[in-house]
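Researcher: Next sequence.
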Amino acid sequence: MITGSIVALVTPMHADGSVDWTSLERLLELHIASGTSAIGVVGTTGESSTLSVPEHCEVIKHCVSHINHRVPIVAGTGANSTREAIILTEAAAEAGVDACLLVTPYYNRPTQNGLYEHHKAVAEAVKIPQILYNVPGRTCIDMLNSTVQRLAGLDNIVGIKDATGDVERGRDLIECVGQQIAIYSGDDPTSMELMLAGGHGSISVTANIVPDRVAQLCRLSMAGDRQAATALNNTLVALNEALFVEANPIPIKWALYNKGLIEAGIRLPLTPLDEQYREQVVAAMEAVGI
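Model: Next structure:
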């Protein structure tokens, strides 16, 4: 089981939108040095929705090759087409990732049974560990805990990224299936509480910019040290808020650019961070010493 801080890694891009492989390798080394437990590539934060299928697969291969088994790689392979999700998951498995992250099928608005059948079909087609990803704020579909319980019975469903931000619901999920699969927070502002309740880690946007602190927060929270975890978490509140003033990954890519770690490239329909928010992001970065 993968536990701890799993960064939801950005995909660095040049000004023309092409993938910046040099910056990608620099970010990977930063996370190795900072104690990040696993690297999550080509998910929402990695702009999977605007990468072509060949680009998607190439980013995965590049990361697997560069990391070379130093930490686990979790690849985003979800799609709103079950066939496409299977194709992406097969490609990720062939590339050598340790697990795949599959978002609920967006836009189609399937029923709960449709969600079950979709994930069941991918799990049966590709025998690689798979992590469910529920983020109703982006997909317009919500995977209920009862559906997660059904899916947790499948051999290679090994976890869920819960990005609802609903800690009580997360606690119920931990109680129901926490002994069968890993429960990861997908919401930085509430990740500490979910981990203190028994969650197994955080798939984090904030970890892109302060990987060492998010890794430490995960360690303290999973160890049950509420006092120390709260003290650390309090230093990250403003940063967590600033990194979501516009749709992810707009603010985090601008923050990394501001820090000099990547170029300013981002793909339409996403655009660079609006000037009205830049002062807030800079102030939040300065408040944590970056």
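Model: The chain has one domain: 4-225. The two ends are 32 Å apart (CA to CA).
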